[in-house]
Structures are given as C-alpha cells and as structure tokens.
Amino acid sequence: MMKKRVQKRDGSGRTTTSSSVMRSVRYGECQKNHAANIGGYAVDGCREFMASGEEGTNDSLLCAACGCHRNFHRREVETEVVCEYSPPNSSRR
C-alpha cells in the first residue's frame, strides 16, 4: 500500500488543507493466452494472483496457482483520498 500526504498553505504560511492518498494494488484473474502459439485463445481460469514466495524475492512475482508471472494477471488499483480541513485562525479584534 502506498500513502502520500499533501498539505496546502495559505498566504500567511498556515496549513489549511491536508489530504492523504492511499493506493492499494490487487492482481485479479490470469489473462495469459495459452493457445497463442497455435492461433487460438485459451486461459487457464486462475481467478486471483497468489504469490509463490515472500515479498521481495523472485518467487513473489510468480503465481502459486497457475505458475504465470504477475504481469499476466489483471491489475486493479484502488485509490482513496481523505481530506481534512482546518479553518485559518481568525484573530480579528
């Protein structure tokens, strides 16, 4: 999951808005065409990518279910933006 924080400042240097962007990536069904070399179209039916090894290893890029590389699986990115607003201090007298 990737998290990014953005802050906006008004002219006086005070922070007025803060927002966080969180992204999570999930890999869905395998889309590798196993019959491409004979001019056909056939997928193996693997429904979701499951890593064969620990994060950071070469095996983490191979699917335990179908044996394909992660790039053959449909990539789904979910983005969530959370905004917080803090009004500027009003010090009028």
UniProtKB/TrEMBL annotation:
Domain of life, per UniProt, equals Eukaryota
Please report the stretch or stretches of sequence annotated as the ZF-HD dimerization-type domain: 27-76
Cellular component terms, GO, for this chain's entry? Answer: nucleus
The UniProt entry, under Pfam families, shows:
ZF-HD_dimer
- Please provide the record's keywords in A-Z order: Metal-binding, Zinc, Zinc-finger
Record's compositionally biased regions (Low complexity): 13-22
GO BP: regulation of developmental process
InterPro entries reported in the protein's UniProt record: ZF_HD_homeobox_Cys/His_dimer
Q: According to the UniProt record, where is the region Disordered?
A: 1-22
The entry lists its GO molecular-function terms as: DNA-binding transcription factor activity; transcription cis-regulatory region binding; zinc ion binding
Q: Which NCBIfam families does the entry mention?
A: ZF_HD_prot_N
Question: Which PANTHER family does this one have?
Answer: MINI ZINC FINGER PROTEIN 3, ZINC-FINGER HOMEODOMAIN PROTEIN 2
Protein name per Swiss-Prot or TrEMBL? ZF-HD dimerization-type domain-containing protein
